Amino acid sequence: MRYRTGRAVTIAVGMAFGASIGLASAASLNLVAHNLTPYRTCTVTATPVATISVIDAGVRQANATSNFGNVTSLDIASGNGANRRTYLRFDLTNCVPAIPASAIVRLATLRLYLTAVPAVCRTIDLFPVTSSWTELGITWNNQPFGTSINNPPTASRTGSFDVGTPVGCQNRTTGAYVVGGTITSDVASFVTGGASNFGWMLRDDVEGSATTRTVTISSKQLGTIAQAPQLVVTYVAVP
Amino acid sequence: MWRRLIGLLLVSVCWAVMAAAVSLAVSPKSTGARTVSTPRCTSAGLSVLQNLSAGTVISVTVSGLPAACGGATLQLTVNNGVANSSGSATVPGAGGSVIVTLGTPVAVTFAEQTDLVLVGP
Fold this sequence. Notes:
The complex is a heterodimer of chains A (239) and B (121).
Chain A: H1 2-29, E1 36-45, E2 54-60, E3 73-78, E4 84-90, E5 104-111, E6 113-116, E7 122-128, E8 159-163, E9 176-177, H2 184-192, E10 200-204, E11 213-218, E12 230-236
Antiparallel strand pairs in A: 1-12, 2-4, 3-11, 4-10, 5-12, 6-9, 6-11, 7-8, 7-10
Chain B: H1 2-22, H2 28-31, E1 47-53, E2 56-65, E3 73-79, E4 84-90, E5 96-107, E6 111-119
Antiparallel strand pairs in B: 1-2, 2-5, 3-4, 3-6
């Protein structure tokens, strides 16, 4: 009887030990299979007012030698001798950590806060600028794309969005950021070094309208963070 | 009695083996480490937009999520270079968009970094 009791104790200790090993192994390994989808985003915001990392300015055909780099709102307008364009540049080198040249840019979006929309639906085109300009020096007469209206041609735009109050127009109301300002291919070129970042020019798709049509956005100089222009770049870092 | 002693001896040996295993130095080479492609539910461009309040980011809206990511856990961290905050949310079964509320608001600066990862489904 004593012998049997002793054997039972030995077996019980062995089983407990074995079980403890199994539990310890399971707890320490903690191997669970998951699908992982990583993304990284850099959001560049035009703030504070004094920053030179984001610059924005307007140019006006009717005031061809005047600079509108220190105004609180910017216009994109189509009119007979009254066309207005907006220039914006975001310095991506301030993203921390820096966006690696090998990164795959999945989406880049320009966010502009609407404060006035026209009564008809207008298409606003985005063109990557190909030479340098300054916030307080640019005018209609010295702008990188020259003074000819409807230039550069629509075919060379890299993005566009529609603005206007009619039902069905993409962006109908003021007090909100525009939807559709996608410029992924441009930012991808900036990141890889395939193109230099001189920002974008925004113009009405058809300048020279008989009736002036104006889209207005908040500028950096307004100083309101919730309305500041933004560039949002979503990318995947490739090792 | 002998069997009891043998049993205790076996237990001691097991402990010794365990102790030895714990002290082993395992190099990646000896474990056969290799590069493994991680399955992903999407490679699409996700829209990641900050929701602001009083100059701070209080939440982030992630949209453009396909149905393949439905049920995944979206973990997200916003870092402004000075402070950071995280949050997570579950992607709806049909995909679409999800709002991730941050644990604490993060002040908007010139540039914020948002890291997000979809875990699963």
